[in-house]
Amino acid sequence: MKFGTRILHTGNEIEQTTGAVSIPVYHASTFKQNKVDEFGPYEYARSGNPTRDALEAIIAKLEGGVRGFAFSSGIAAISSVLLLFSPGDHIVVCEDVYGGTYRVLTGLFNRLGIEVTFVDFTDPAKVKTALRRNTKGVYAETPSNPLLKITDLRAVSAIARENGLLSMVDNTFLTPYLQRPIELGIDIVIHSATKYLGGHSDLLAGLVVAADKQTAERINYIQYSFGAVLGPQDCWLLMRGIKTLKARMDMHQSGARKLAEWLAGCPEVKEVYFPGLPDHPGKEIHDSQADGPGGIVSFRMQTEEMAKRLLENVKLSALAVSLGAVESIISYPVTMSHAGMHPDHRVRTGVTGDLIRLSVGLEDPGDLIEDLAAAIS
Ligand SMILES: *Cc1c(COP(=O)(O)O)cnc(C)c1O
């Protein structure tokens, strides 16, 4: 079956005892046992809840892994995965990693003795060069945020395999509809489900999928012990969001393509970053591992003043952090999503004052273009 069908028929769409076609929200923190030594399928909601179970099974199926895990936010999911590592371990991470991931690695996990090196992942040779005796993991995002740089996931998973490392990919930008890293050899897929999977700017959530049983068991232990689980109400909202993922992503992509092409022809715009443009660096690799460009367009104005003026005058796109929602969201990475990054690191990775990131929503693309044109002039 094609993804569009599978997304609605994962085997978890019907509640078995009543036949309800929407999985109910089980607001229960604990589950009664019949005898002291006789356990049912559920005990205490931190270890499992029927609503969360359905969501976790759905994301595992869509990513092609063995087991899924739902967390209270994307960063809770990322932090829980990072708890797989121990003091003295070293991880190689893409240098343009999500700002919050950079923050938790450099502000928190480094205190716990987990070492990190940030590297340009567009060149797999640089990843290899960064490996040390104590390297235990590699962590990638592709397309990256906010410049949509492309990492060759097959190459990264091969490096991980050859060196006995755990490979992790944050797949937030593309979702399993457009990219399935486990099929490319990656061990762990992570999502901020706050973005496209939820899709409506109405919840915070994180998801993790493990490719193999042993990794799944270790993550299960962390999820239960650390306890950053997603509540049943948000699990339900997220399942509802996922039902329309394909329909939304198709519209996000076609709108983003129109906007990217229009921006590329604007004299006030210096550069456009969108994996659907023919000259986007790494496009060939992207097309070999993903089924579409996604819905994020970043662009550089001729000057920082022009970027600020645009952001102050744009009306249809909300000036906000976050992305992947039905409404367009425009942001200024340097003071917003990437504010937590060291200024030198920002400059090195191209996050400067002339840069704007646009998450293209489901509005009519013609209206979005008209609004941007008015804001630019
Ligand atoms: C937003 C985001 C996160 C963090 O997720 P939260 O749900 O905000 O905690 C992680 N990675 C990427 C790529 C993101 O866009």
From TrEMBL:
Q: Which residues carry this modification: N6-(pyridoxal phosphate)lysine?
A: 195
Q: Which InterPro entries match?
A: Cys/Met-Metab_PyrdxlP-dep_enz, Cys_met_metab_PP, PyrdxlP-dep_Trfase, PyrdxlP-dep_Trfase_major, PyrdxlP-dep_Trfase_small
Give cofactor(s), names only: pyridoxal 5'-phosphate
- What family is this? Belongs to the trans-sulfuration enzymes family.
Record bears the keyword Lyase:
yes
Database matches in Gene3D superfamilies? Aspartate Aminotransferase, domain 1 (3.90.1150.10), Type I PLP-dependent aspartate aminotransferase-like (Major domain) (3.40.640.10)
- Tell me its EC number(s), please: 4.4.1.13
An example GO BP is:
methionine biosynthetic process
Keywords, A to Z? Amino-acid biosynthesis, Aminotransferase, Lyase, Methionine biosynthesis, Pyridoxal phosphate, Transferase
| Record-linked PANTHER family | CYSTATHIONINE BETA-LYASE (PTHR11808:SF50), TRANS-SULFURATION ENZYME FAMILY MEMBER (PTHR11808)
A GO cellular component annotated for this chain's UniProt record is: cytoplasm
Q: Which GO terms describe its molecular function?
A: cysteine-S-conjugate beta-lyase activity; pyridoxal phosphate binding; transaminase activity
Q: State which residue ranges cross the membrane.
A: none
This chain's protein is named cysteine-S-conjugate beta-lyase
Question: Which organism does this sequence originate in?
Answer: Pelotomaculum isophthalicicum JI
